[in-house]
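Quick one:
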Amino acid sequence: MLEAGCAVGPDYRRPTTVAAPAAFKEGAPPAAALPGGGEWKPAQPSDGALRGKWWELYGDPRLDALEEKVAISNQTLKAAAAQYLAATAQVRVARASLYPRLSAGPSVTHTRESENQPNTVRGVTHFDFNTFVLEGQVTWEPDLWGQVRRTVEQARASAEASAADLANVELSIRAELAMDYLELRGLDTQQALLANTVASDADYLQLTQVRFRGGVGTEVDVAQAETQYQSVKAQATDLGVTRAHYEHAIATLIGVPASTFSLPPIPLDLVPPAVPAGVPARLLERRPDIAGAERRVAAANAGIGIAIAGYYPDITLGATGGWESGALATWFEVPSLLWSLGASALETIFDAGRRHALTDQARDTYEAEVADYRQSVLGAFQEVEDNLAALRILGEEAVTERAAVDAAHRSLSISTKRYRGGVTTYLEVLTAQTAQLANERTQADITTRQCVASVALIKALGGGWDTTQAPGH
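Output:
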């Protein structure tokens, strides 16, 4: 069998991409902080790298249990897995064309010829006869120009791209599940916060009513306290709509009917894990979508060779052998043997430019896949930088917001004492209440966004996947 290097068309070479920077901009310290001005590469022990079950970084058994159900029940993932299996079967289909095809079988016929046909010998009565045939046939189209080998190469690269697509679908589903779960728990935090605020506002409403009945408060104070109380209750109720949507989304992701699934309210108390980002060059190995795009480039390159092979003649070798007789008794005797050997070569002389157009189409498809591959790399760097920036900025915002919440607590405490002492009106207390609630909800929202951004960063880094998990490695 000829080696793939003898096939017509260009041999595949991975296309170049933009030069990977030495480090992620958002993850690197200032250059001035580097001792000796050396190149910054974060050193990570091997056990610090992202692994397959990256969601375990969050240390939440409920999230772990939900993630385990994805591979079993998610229908989108099952569809992607079936597409991968179909692609691997296509490799076997293409490879089968490298080998000869053998067919064999018996046939029995009874024939009645016309007595009045031309050249009939008068007096001959053998116009009815039987024919018994057992025949085998071998045909082979030697892959002299590499068309079949390029087809196998194309099918194999497509199967590897399909495997990367499967990994990317799984990563996306698992990341979406983790994000929805963390968003839901963030809403539970806000609901718990609003429930505490409702209880506190009920006490403030009772205080204004007591002061009003005692003649030291006004009806306006009571109305303002009741407005605040009812407003916070409405906010708590409104969160239920969004929470239900996240709960239903989680049910769909794990492959169960939304009407049969529920999660108990659990406030978010997780600390976003430190995600080992590594160095940018590793991103090309850790992103399944980049691997899939690169494999599609390889498949398109093989398509050029397939198109070019169309310019060469089709060579076919054939052999036939068996037994043929008019009677069962002599079917397998030596005189009944038959055989033939042959070869044919067929070259297309004129096709109105069809082969030229197919070759141009294959080359243009290759260029398009190269552009998609390079764009995938650029997009990957952007996604990592975006989420590193989000985590950095949210971390700074969290520190500031924590101080704002502490200040709001002090402000409400002072205003409450002033109101009880008759120094000020309830409007001052109401303003402090509103500010405290707004800052506490913002703080809860920042925590949720930090956790979600950490999941987005893990997804942007390829999760626990790497190219060694792809077929052929």
